[in-house]
Each structure stands twice: as structure tokens, then as C-alpha cells.
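Write out a sequence, fold above all:
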Amino acid sequence: MSTPRTDIEQVELANTAFYEALERGDFEELSSLWLAPTDTADDAVESGGEEEGEGLGISCVHPGWPVLNGRGEVLRSYALVMANTEYIQFFLTDVHVSVVGDTALVTCTENILSGGPAPDDSDELGPLVGQLVVATNVFRRTAYGWKLWSHHASPVLAETGEADDQDSPG
């Protein structure tokens, strides 16, 4: 595999790493991808010495959840998601990356396939469920590469086709 040559390629790799860590349930890897106070000298100053990087402005919105602020709260939410999700896979589409200076914005559609725990009397995975979510991931360049600064995901409401039926002459 070749080394990424552009900021856009590097951000794409960081974005992919985020989803792959979540799929594997690799909390350590996922944690390392989020902005931390030790990532840059400026961040340490901004955090004012606060614990867990609360002053970094890290935020996350999972579909249907309130805004989570601060590294500790965000990472706890991912630990909770991983602990309660038996299987999850992301198929990303409509990925668009913009880089301005030391900030990158990634928008994408998360086509999610997930499964819950097996029924009590079985070793098999519970029923699989598909979900369509649009996401915005904001990255910040650090001395250690591009790190997640914010993740915001919102469900896409399925079209029922009823509006089309109302507009057609009857």
C-alpha cells in the first residue's frame, strides 16, 4: 500500500480508521483517533489542565442522543455502544472531504447493518437491522496525524411514497 500524499488522502484514511475501529469494537484504537490534550502543545494550553481534555471542544451526537461534550463523555458513549452492539458494519457512501488549513470536514452517508445479542436459547446473532444515517466528522491536524474533533450523525427518514400518491391525479 502506498503512503498517502495529500491531506485529503490522510483524512480519508483517518475517517476509515474510525469506522473500522468501531466495527471491530476496538476501544483503544477508537480512543487514539480522537483529539487528546497531548496531541499538540496548543491543545494543552486550551484545555487549561482540565482532566480528560474537556477544554478541547470535542463533541459527539449519536442518532437520537443529546450532544455529548468532552473527551471523557464522548469516549464513554462509544464504550456503551460497543458493549451493547453484538455486530455492526458501516458501508460509507457519498463521502466528501474538505481541508482548510489544519481543519478537515468529512460528510458521508453511513449505511449501517447491525445485530443485537442472540436470543436466550441460541448461539446465533440476533436479527440484523439496516439503518441510514448522515454524518459529519470534523478532524484537526496534530503532530500525530489527523484526529477526530467532532462527530455528528443523524438518521435519514425513509420516504414512504405517500407524497407521490397525493400529487398524482386520481
Residues 10 and 120 are 44 Å apart (CA to CA). The chain has five helices and six strands. The first strand starts at residue 59 and ends at 61. Strands lie at 59-61, 68-69, 87-100, 103-115, 128-142, 145-155.
